[in-house]
Design goal:
With 261 residues, the chain is an alpha/beta fold. 32% of the residues lie in helices and 30% in strands. Helix 4 crosses helix 5. The structure holds adenosine-5'-triphosphate (ATP). GO terms for molecular function: ATP binding.
Length: 261
C-alpha cells in the first residue's frame, strides 16, 4: 500500500478559518491515519488549537472541509460525533463544583442510558486509574491543583473509549512523571488501534512518542511526516528560531533544543 492509499480517519481539505476577521488557518490539507499518534506542533499562535477545534467539529471552517471516515464531519449528528471523537480543550475551568468522579462520568453522556450505572462506575474508576488519579475520585474539582484537575479531565477524555481522541496540550500542567505516564497512555491507546491527535509544545515528547507530526506556522501546514522528517535543524531553525538536534539513542528518538539562533 502506498502512503496515498492508507486509510484515513480525518481528512482536511483546503481548510481555512477566520477569527475576528483575521485568517488563522489557511489552505490546510492533512490526513490523520487510523492507529497513529499524531502531534500538531508549532509556535504560539501558529493555529494548533484552532485546527484541533475544527477537527473536533467545534469550530466550523470558513472554507474547505473536514471528513470523518467517508462522511463530512459537519453532517454527522452531534451525539454520534461525540461517541466517535473525544476532545479535551487546552484550558477548561470547571463551571461549578462536583466530585472528580462525576466530572469523569460526563465523558459517558453521549451514550445516554445505554451504559448501566455499574458499568459507569467501573469505567470511571478505570479511567481515573489510567491517569493515576484514583485517590482524587471524591475530591471537589474546584479544590484540585492545576495538574490534578488536568488528570481528572484526561480521565473524562478516556472514559468513553472513543476511537478518536483529540487533546490540546494535554500534559501542560503535569509534572514530568505524569507527562511521561500520559504519553505512554496515549501511545498504548494508539497501539491498541485508537487514533490520537495532540497539540504539543514539548518537541522532546513529540519526537519520542509520536508517529507523525504536523508542523504549523502562521496558520499554514509548514511540514508533515515522521518526527525525524519534520524536526530537522533547518526546519526547527526556520519556524522556532533555535538551534536543535535530532538523534537516535538506544532505538529512541531524541530532540534536543539548543540556543537561540
Ligand atoms: N477566540 C478567538 N478569537 C479570535 N482570535 C483567536 C481566538 N483564539 C485564537 N485566536 C487567534 O488565532 C490565532 C491562532 O491561535 P491558536 O490558539 O489556534 O494558536 P496555537 O498555535 O494553539 O497557540 P498556542 O501555542 O499559544 O496555544 C492566533 O493569532 C490567535 O490570536
Amino acid at each position: 500500500m502506498t502512503e496515498q492509499e492508507l486509510p484515513v480517519v480525518l481528512r482536511c481539505n483546503a481548510l481555512a478559518l477566520t477569527r475576528d476577521r483575521r485568517p488563522v488557518l489557511d489552505d490546510v490539507h492533512c490526513d490523520i491515519r487510523p492507529g497513529e499518534l499524531t502531534a500538531v506542533i508549532g509556535p504560539n499562535g501558529a493555529g494548533k488549537s484552532s485546527l484541533l477545534s475544527v477537527l473536533a467539529g467545534l469550530l466550523p471552517p470558513s472554507a474547505g472541509e473536514v471528513s470523518l471516515g467517508v462522511r463530512a464531519l459537519a453532517g454527522i449528528p452531534v451525539a454520534e460525533r461525540a461517541r466517535r471523537c473525544a476532545f479535551l480543550p487546552q484550558q477548561e475551568v470547571p463551571a461549578w463544583s462536583m466530585a472528580a468522579q462525576d466530572l469523569v462520568a460526563l465523558g459517558l453522556l453521549p451514550w445516554g442510558r445505554a451504559i448501566s450505572r455499574t458499568a459507569v462506575r467501573e469505567r470511571v474508576a478505570r479511567a481515573l486509574a489510567q491517569v493515576d488519579a484514583t485517590e482524587l475520585a471524591l475530591r471537589q474539582v474546584t479544590h484540585l491543583s492545576g495538574g490534578e484537575l488536568r488528570r481528572v479531565q484526561l480521565a473524562r477524555l478516556l472514559v468513553g473509549d472513543a476511537p478518536l481522541l483529540i487533546a490540546d496540550e494535554p500534559g501542560a500542567a503535569l509534572d514530568i512523571r505524569h507527562q511521561l505516564q500520559l504519553m505512554q497512555t496515549f501511545r498504548q491507546q494508539s497501539d491498541s488501534g485508537k487514533t490520537v491527535v495532540l497539540a504539543l509544545h514539548d518537541l522532546g515528547l513529540a519526537a519520542r512518542y509520536c508517529d507523525r507530526l504536523l508542523l504549523m506556522q502562521g496558520g499554514r501546514l509548514f511540514a508533515e511526516g515522521t518526527p525525524e522528517q519534520v524536526l530537522t535543524p533547518a526546519r526547527v531553525g526556520e519556524v522556532y528560531g533555535i538551534h536543535s538536534e535530532f538523534r537516535w539513542r538506544d532505538g529512541r528518538a531524541e530532540f534536543i533544543a539548543g540556543d537561540l539562533l
